[in-house]
Design a protein that fits this description.
Elements (H helix, E strand, L loop, with lengths): L3 H12 L9 H12 L10 H21 L13 E4 L3 E5 L5 E6 L7 H14 L6 E8 L2 E9 L9 H10 L3 E4 L2 E4 L4 E4 L6 E4 L2 E4 L3 E4 L3
Antiparallel strand pairs: 1-2, 2-3, 3-5, 4-5, 6-7, 7-8, 8-11, 9-10
Helix pairs in contact: 1-4, 2-4
Length: 215
């Protein structure tokens, strides 16, 4: 179960409150967006309307990246390209210990929801926590460059084990591979066997999509 500190931070994220005492770039960007935009709890119902806000947020993030030296270059080696997922291009890290994910946040109506999702992931699954390295842009599309530990699977994932682990932490399986934690006000979607890796009997959640919701 979650510690009191984790639960408090999750509640702050869902409420759209500033996260104090953190100095990583991901939290800093999230806090910057929170200062000017509200966290939506109806984003799943108002995706198209929120998409207008996403464009405005991208303009703010362009300025923020320039002011804070967060435009990145030279990190991605085309020879180390691995695959393209639903929302990210994935590269093997030059250190052979991590992967780099170039994410266009297509699953999220706003950039704030994207950084909320990353922040929630890092709290719940610290063994696969993302490090936000900065932004890049291609064809006029803003993208976030994320680093994540590279995990090697040594066994096939049993989705019943995934369901049990999530249930222990208050997540109800609401349909197929989607889960809801009503107490915290968050949805976790698309948790299939390619988004969770098993290594030495431990489950590693490598791709998650979180949304804040209202009942």
């Amino acid at each position: 179960m979650f510690s009191n500190d984790t639960r408090t931070k999750l509640e702050h994220i869902v409420r759209g409150a500033i996260l104090e005492g953190e100095n990583d770039h991901c939290t800093a960007v999230r806090n910057y967006l929170c200062a000017g935009f509200s966290t939506s709890k109806t984003v799943k119902r108002d995706f198209e309307r929120n998409a207008i806000i996403k464009k405005e947020q991208a303009e703010h993030l362009n300025q923020y990246a320039a002011s804070n030296n967060l435009w990145v270059s030279g990190l991605l080696d085309k020879d180390l390209y691995l695959t393209r997922g639903g929302e990210a291009e994935v590269y093997f890290g030059k250190d052979s210990l991590n992967v780099l994910k170039v994410n266009d946040a297509i699953y999220y109506a706003t950039w704030l929801e994207f950084f909320n999702s990353v922040s929630i992931h890092n709290l719940l699954f610290p063994n696969t926590a993302y490090i936000f390295l900065g932004f890049t842009e291609s064809d006029g599309i803003l993208k976030a460059v994320m680093q994540q530990p590279f995990i090697i699977a040594d066994d096939q994932v049993d989705l019943n084990d995934v369901k049990q682990l999530l249930a222990f932490n208050g997540f109800e399986n609401i349909k197929r591979n989607d889960y809801k934690n009503s107490a915290l006000g968050i949805l976790l979607e698309d948790i299939h066997d390619e988004n969770v890796i098993s290594n030495k009997g431990v489950l590693f959640f490598i791709d998650t999509v979180f949304y804040t919701i209202s009942e």
